[in-house]
Design a protein that fits this description.
Order of helices and strands: EHEEHEHEHEHEHEHEHEHEEHHEEEEEEH
Structural class: alpha/beta
Largest sheet: 9 strands, parallel
Bound molecules: pyridoxal-5'-phosphate
Radius of gyration: 23 Å
Oligomer: single chain
Number of helices: 12
């Protein structure tokens, strides 16, 4: 089948683009002398991992489903971070992880010793309280954030609890190396005194080194300088988006065009709510390969694209095209791999709630429990 024959709707992953990202990331890893692992939360299309494995096998997991999938399909070091572990989950995390990060001192106190006993290196997520992200729902350092221990909280505990081997901070999203520089400055000035006693520091995700214009030389310099200041620390980065940035599109078909009060909407055989949730959440407006600039001579528009669902808000816009859109036109919605396919399945690999029927007599019957095979099979 050629790309023109792909049945719609389809998420398409391009091997050449993926390889380009893999080459770039592993080159930065080598030059900076750090470990760059893959965050599953952005991409878990495990059937494409044959391409990824020769470059990288290490990953970070945010749930037991992701951890199990990573162990099965990548098989390298497993760095786990989940905001809260429970008695029901901790043993499995410890069985499969090489590193585990705790989000609070209380969580570390509860499970840190068990991690050490199991040979899993325990770390603490810290919050450098340095905000560089404009979109609030993607800002882990938003004031009042539930993520990580602040420097003042650590001080109030009389310092670092014994047994903590690493620090993890994550404060970036689609960010530049210059944003990292600011966060790193805040991190070192607040947590510097503890660093000598640690084995590793994980600088989280959000390093969008594969975006055009990203200054990878500056990143390498920044990381090399940090390593020189702290030669005892292994430095880990865990980007998600960067691995699969601009590696996939969503191909859709126009199935009808409607007009109401001068607003033209091309209805497509896909849905923003169901298949591109970031377009409504963020909102993110994808580039469409077939669209043209509004000031292009002869451009027709504006057009909204509307999802084939009953949600009134299931639309995005506006785009212009070289000619009128009509049923049967194929459109390519760009950059629909990272954070799209995972969000339309089981995001973060989080356990899907059970479905229970509570009958009129007050009896509750479990109708369905979702398990790992549901997660894995939705993924590819
Ligand atoms: C703890 C943690 N690490 C890594 C990532 C990956 O970030 P990105 O996909 O922006 O690189 C995230 C994203 O939410 C995260 O929360």
């Amino acid at each position: 089948m050629t790309d023109k024959e792909i049945p719609t709707p389809a998420y398409v992953v391009y091997e050449d683009r993926l390889r380009r990202n893999l080459e770039l990331i592993t080159d930065v890893e080598r030059r900076a002398g750090v470990k760059i692992i893959m965050a599953f939360k952005a991409n878990a299309l495990w059937r494409s991992f044959d391409i990824i494995r020769p470059y990288n096998r290490d990953f970070t997991a945010s749930s037991l489903n992701e951890l199990r999938l990573g162990s099965e399909e990548l098989g390298g070091e497993a760095h786990s971070y989940c905001p809260a572990y429970t008695e029901a989950t901790i043993e499995e995390y410890l069985r499969l992880s090489s590193h585990i990060t705790f989000n609070s001192i209380d969580q570390f106190r509860r499970y840190g010793a068990r991690a050490l006993q199991a040979g899993v290196s325990p770390g603490l997520r810290v919050n450098p309280e340095c905000s560089v992200i404009e979109t609030d729902i993607y800002n882990p350092a938003l004031p009042g954030s539930r993520f990580g221990v602040t420097a003042s909280q650590l001080e109030a505990q009389d310092g670092l609890p014994e047994g903590v081997e690493g620090f993890h901070f994550h404060a970036l999203c689609e960010s530049s190396s210059y944003d990292l520089e600011r966060v790193l400055g805040a991190f070192e000035s607040q947590f510097g005194p503890y660093l000598d006693g640690l084995k590793w520091v994980n600088m989280g995700g959000g390093h969008l080194m594969t975006r055009r214009g990203y200054d990878t030389d500056h990143l390498v310099q920044l990381l090399s300088d940090f390593r020189r200041r702290h030669p005892n620390l292994q430095v880990i980065l865990e980007p998600g988006s960067a691995w699969t940035w601009r590696t996939g599109d969503l191909i859709v078909l126009v199935v009808d065009v409607v007009e109401n009060q001068g607003v033209r909407t091309a209805i497509i055989d896909a849905s923003f709510a169901c298949h591109m949730p970031d377009c409504l959440e963020m909102p993110y407006k994808p580039a469409i390969t077939e669209a043209v600039e509004p000031d292009t001579p002869g451009a027709v528009g504006p057009y909204r694209l509307g999802g084939n669902s009953c949600l009134s808000g299931d639309f995005a816009g506006d785009w212009w095209f070289a000619s009128e859109l009509k049923a049967g036109d194929r459109l390519t919605l760009e950059d629909m791999n990272h954070y799209t396919t995972v969000k339309t399945t089981m995001f973060n690999g989080l356990q899907h709630p059970d479905i229970v029927l509570a009958d009129t007599a007050g009896e509750c019957r479990l109708l369905r429990r979702f398990d790992y095979s549901d997660y894995k099979n939705r993924m590819s």
